[in-house]
Amino acid sequence: MKTRVTARGRTAITKSSRGIALLRDPLLNHGTGFTEKERDALGLRGLLPPTVLSIKAQAERVLTNLRRAPDDLDKYVALNALHDRNEALFFKVVTENIDEIQPIIYTPTVGLACQRFGHIFQRPRGLFISANDRGRIAKLLANWPYPAKLIVVTDGERILGLGDLGANGMGIPVGKLSLYAACAGIHPQQCLPVMLDVGTNNEELRKDPYYVGLRRKRVTGAAYDALIDEFITAARKTFPGVLIQFEDFANHSAFRLLHKYRDRACVFNDDIQGTAAVALAGLFSALRITGGKLSEQTLLFLGAGEAATGIADLVVSAMMAEGLSEAEARQRNWLVDSRGLVVKGRQGLTAHKLPYAHEHAPVSNFVTAIRALKPTAIIGVAAVGGTFTPEVLKTMAEINKQPIVFALSNPTSKAECSAEEAYCYTEGRALFACGSPYDPVTLNAKTFVPRQGNNSYIFPGVGLGVIASGSKLVTDEMFMAAAQTLAKLVTAEDLKQGSLYPALPRIREVSAHIAAAVAKVAYQRGLAKGKQPKNLLAHIKAQMYNPNY
Ligand code: NAD
């Protein structure tokens, strides 16, 4: 069946799509929303009950039913089924209720959905490419019926903070691409989720009778690299100009793949670069409250993986933009990993940690490190729940008038502390951001509204900007521009209530502005295709998909 994306981002129904096949195509189906005229013209008479419902009424019905579902996983399953049935309606519900729905289709519920993926599996979405497909990946890609502009690919080895979930990790690219469509208006037909199934070292999963992936240990080394290489080459040939986002790769692959491909293909790694931009934006917002400069801060990270070093690298660039040398900037960023403070001379440090291995005596305990280094900000990205203990928070409050506390690990079970803990143990002085959603907290008659330092503020806009400009590459300068743009969109009202990010319902406006800033960098650096439109923001807004009939 043929469909095409119209100039205004809608899916046009072409002459060949009719009757029952039309109702079964989620990109074209309007369900009971088909009008009387359409029912006659498209051979739908009798295939639908007689009452025509508007998309508004359909969306209300979906929400009513959703709110009756007993738990979040049931809500996830219901939304997934809607996604498979009627994409316009799904995206209308998501877009207009993003605050309520994002935590279901993305973190934290998507983590649980991935753990249960084989058990709740209904219909495949995207492409499953396995290690058995070596030598024929181009053929598999040719089976995809739509012209992809954006691929989110994972090998499932580090799904959120949940570890190796193998092929079950497909829930993440699916969820991320839903956010690209909902939050930045990238047309769903242009989005392709890909699972590169190289096996799993998760023995429990391999024994699960409903596991959907290869029941073998992970392919590693040269065979793994060859598979990735074949995929990247084939994807770029099948879908010229396609943007490929690496997602939830373990850090031994993530850094390597990013460095290998970033200067020769249009790729980025959201866990490293997207996280960095969202955290930097949160720091800029916090500094609007304290009045300090970034280059005066000392940051202590709990965790030394993709998120931590990604954030630290971008912070270093931003500190250098304020006049510090690279060495001075790095010296202001410290990492703590599972073996304690990362210090010079420690044996066995991996390459990505080395730039942050400073001269210092070994310190094994986080609180001791805080007392020794006196950080103005602590950033939790170790995926170990509860590590910002009352003692950690109280110590930060002793040292700082307004301590910056970012508990970014996902899902909620891995959060370093809750919003309530952050505010209570710092007497309401913490400038707090979290990886998972938390309700407002009232303390001494003041209500704090914590917002998620979630890369979903960044990647949709970056993706839209790259696609809209036809950029050949995705650069760090684009992430810096994204962070600055995001921070500028935080209002004085937001800051007054302790929110370091804009309200989520503004996400499409936020994404459009980030996209314009990213596209501007692409044009300035000669990476874009064609001439820069006069009004970049208007040009980008006009391309955004608006779910409707
Ligand atoms: P990663 O596996 O690359 O890094 C984890 C790091 O934590 C490693 O350096 C490890 O040594 C360290 N670690 C493990 N146990 C520790 C302990 N007890 N004490 C100190 N350090 C310890 O993972 P990542 O990609 O950096 O992600 C980490 C977490 O951040 C995950 O929960 C992920 O979901 C979350 N994250 C959140 C966002 C967001 O937008 N909020 C974005 C990216 C990642």
User: What is the β-strand count?
Assistant: 16
Q: N-to-C terminal Cα separation, in Å?
A: 19 Å
Largest sheet: 7 strands, mixed
Q: How many domains, as an integer?
A: 4
Rg on CA atoms, Å: 23 Å
- In CATH terms, what is the fold-level topology of the largest domain? Rossmann fold
Alpha-beta classification:
alpha/beta
CATH class of the largest domain: Alpha Beta
The share of residues in helices is: 40-55%
Query: How much of the polypeptide forms β-strand, as a percent range?
Result: 5-15%
Figure out the total of helices: 24
Going across the major beta sheet, what is the strand order?
10-9-8-11-12-13-16
> Which ligands occur here?
nicotinamide-adenine-dinucleotide
CATH superfamily descriptor of the largest domain? NAD(P)-binding Rossmann-like Domain
Q: Low-confidence segments, ≥5 residues, pLDDT <50? A: none
Mean pLDDT metric: 95
- Principal-axes geometry comes out as globular
Protein traits:
alpha/beta; single chain; five-stranded parallel β-sheet; Rossmann fold; 16 strands; globular; seven-stranded mixed β-sheet; Hemocyanin, N-terminal domain; 549 residues; 24 helices; binds nicotinamide-adenine-dinucleotide; 11% strand
Characterization of the model:
Helix content is 44%, strand content 11%. The protein has 549 residues and is an alpha/beta fold. The protein folds into 4 domains: 11-53, Hemocyanin, N-terminal domain (Up-down Bundle), CATH 1.20.1370.30; 110-265, 3-Layer(aba) Sandwich (Rossmann fold), CATH 3.40.50; 273-453, NAD(P)-binding Rossmann-like Domain (Rossmann fold, 3-Layer(aba) Sandwich), CATH 3.40.50.720; 457-542, Malic enzyme, N-terminal domain (Rossmann fold, 3-Layer(aba) Sandwich). The strands form 4 sheets. Strands 10-9-8-11-12-13-16 form a 7-stranded mixed beta sheet, sandwiched between helices. Strand 4 (150-154), helix 10 and strand 5 (191-197) form a beta-alpha-beta unit. Helix 4 crosses helix 5 (87-96) and helix 21 (476-488) runs antiparallel to helix 23 (507-524). The longest helix is centred in the middle third of the chain and has 21 residues, at 270-290. The chain is globular. The two termini are 19 Å apart. 52% of the residues are buried.
